[in-house]
Structure formats: structure tokens, C-alpha cells
């Protein structure tokens, strides 16, 4: 049977390195070779492997020291040690510290291929099944940082653990969440995405948890909430840091008890969902300020994934820009092949504070206004400079409107919370929570 996957082979014995490489390549694996631990680390920085196969004894840094560094930087990468009889006790100890396994020299091809295949099935099950990379198809990247993140995500996906995705706005947190869902045993179930900052607070409870008929004015029929709609699948809670404290208590019950109670219901009902949440906010700071429950944080943060900003994976910019351009050219019926070299160089030089979303918006303007086969530098400069590339999302626009509205109320009321809350038709407690959400202090407006 032919296999697929990339193996990084590390050994200072040139003959053994050549022999092992031939055996692995004959079985269908792609093989990268290094003669030292230092060279192996350099190779991983350039191109991630699916399995690391290293000799224990190496010049300079030994195999165990290499493993310790790999464990810190590439925690999802399985490591197999090649060891002599004299170091078997050390190898056994290494396994207890996280090494995937070891092979005692001399070993035959069957043992080698069996161990590599076992490690490969752990590190990337989709790699060993041709055509099964669909789970990450929406993630357009060639960055080693992203490859390591996806390798971790692939391992996490196989479990039912709650995941917290942290990263800047526009970096692609929902795309990563969808990839996790598609790679999980729940892939056949629904994926329900909820932006906690985009739904008005007074509607969020009903939208999430559902309500019974007559539960409140206007509740003419029974309504299944979004949590119930995610039954058997994945619930993605974006901008979880914007969730009101009162609802955080109810969400905690869903996570702890695996049950929910709709608004107006007399009893709870069982629910089976996997929760993935995301935020660009500092949840630890919100906890300190009393705006986010610490117990909920630990329930959500069973596993954390940190999505790097586009500025830390600049090698993805040309790939993403061309990907968006191809999609947009088809949508708008444009015949455009790509970017002029100086235009692409300019794209790669920018910081992209709005990340992938900002890049996509800039490319869209370039495509819409383009009249030639290549996007010129002037078009890219215009798309970035006139602000089109940083148009806010609907959720961001709503948050900005809410903050502007609160500031106006506080100016009109000269910082009097009772008056401002009455104008806004909100009680004082809810109004104070809105002020905290936007870091506004009423006393600062008393002199207006």
C-alpha cells in the first residue's frame, strides 16, 4: 500500500540516512533529510513535516534535546527515536515524556513503516487518506505558523473539548472554527455561528436559548434557539467577550450540565453540542474588571488556539491576494490574471492591521475598478489609501454606533446615569453594564 505524508529524517550517518530515505520514499512518503538537530530545526522552520524520525545520538544537540525544542514549538508533531540497545531505558523514559515511540537498531523495513504510519495517523489522519483534506480547504496558507496551528487543530478536532480561538479581528477565526468542525466526528451535524456582539442584548437570550410561546410580549410561537439548532454539531460563539454576564451564567450551565432552559420554560432539556468560542478581547482583563465569569472562561478555554495576524505570516499575502482575485474575477465577470510585480510587492509590504478581511476588501476594490489584465500598483495604492480596505464589518459598525449613542446620552445628561438610562429605555443596572462594555465612565461627562 502506498502512503502519503512528509517525514523529516535526522541522522549523522550518511549511509543510514540514505538507506532509510530510500525505504520511506519507496513506500510513498516525501522525505526531508538533516544531519544534525540544528539542521532539523531549520528545516522545520521552512517546511513542516508530519513525522520527525531522529537518531538519539547526534553531533552537538542530541535527539532528546531536539525533541524538547520540537515539543515547545511544534506540540502536534510526533517524534520517533532511533536508539541502540544501550539506550533502551532512556528511550522508554523518553516515551513517558511525550516521545511517540522508538525503534531499536537494527530494525527492518516493516517495523519502520509500521511505526511511521502509526505516527502519521496521529499527527494528520487526513494525510493518510487521499482526498480527505477538504476539512481545511477554506484555510488558504503556506505559512509554517499556520501549518503548525492546523496540525494542532486536527488533533483537537477528534475530541469533544471546548476550544477558545484567540486572534485579532479579521484574522479568520470563524474559518478556523469551521475547519475544526469539518475535521471532527460531528462534521455531519450542523455548524451554527453566533456573533455575540452583533445581536442586541435584549434579544440575545431568546436567540441563543429559545423561548416558549407567551414567554414575553411578542412571543406568539415557540422558538428553538441557536443552541438547540446546533444539536449534534458545533456551536460557534464569536466575540464571546461581548456576552452579557446574565447569559454567561446560562451558558455555563449548558457546558457543565449539557442542558438548557428556554426563556419561559418550566424545566430544562438535554442538549448535545460542541462549543467553540472566539475573541479578540483580553478575557483575563475582563475577568479582573468583573465583566466576564472566571468559571466560564475555564470551561471555554479547555484548549486554546492562537491565530497569528497576517503581519506574522506575510508569505500568505500573495497566496491570499491571488485566491481572492480569482474568486472575485469570476463573480464580477472580469478577465484579470493577477497583480503586477510592483503591486504585489506593495501588498506584501503593508502591515494589514485589519488582517485577511482588510486584504480581501482591498482586492475586491482593485478587481471591481480594474480594466486591464493585471492589477497595477496605482490601483492597490488607491484601494488602501481611500479607506475602502478597512470598511468595518456590520458587527463592528454596530458596536461603534452603540458607543457613539452612549457618549451622546452621557453628554446630554451631563453624566447622570439615571437620566441617560431613562432616555435609553434601560434600567440602571443594564445601562451600567453597557458603559462597562465600552469602557465609558459617566463621571467624566459631568462637565460637558
Strand order of the largest sheet: 2-1-3-4-5
Count of distinct strands = 14
Classified by CATH, the class of the largest domain is Alpha Beta
What percent of residues are in strands? 5-15%
Span of the ends, CA to CA: 77 Å
Major sheet summary line: 5 strands, parallel
Q: In angstroms, what is the radius of gyration?
A: 27 Å
Query: How many distinct helices?
Result: 19
What integer is the average pLDDT?
A: 84
The shape, in one word, is globular
CATH architecture of the largest domain: 3-Layer(aba) Sandwich
Could you please describe the fold and organization of this structure?
The strands form four sheets. Strands 2-1-3-4-5 form a five-stranded parallel beta sheet, with helices on both faces. The chain has a five-stranded parallel beta sheet with strand order 7-8-11-6-12. It has a two-stranded antiparallel ribbon with strand order 9-10. Helix 15 crosses helix 16. The chain has four domains: 6-123, Rossmann fold; 144-306, Rossmann fold (3-Layer(aba) Sandwich); 310-390, Orthogonal Bundle (Helicase, Ruva Protein, domain 3); 394-445, no CATH class. The protein is globular, with a radius of gyration of 27 Å. The protein is α/β, with parallel strands linked by helices and 448 residues long. The protein contains 19 helices and 14 strands.
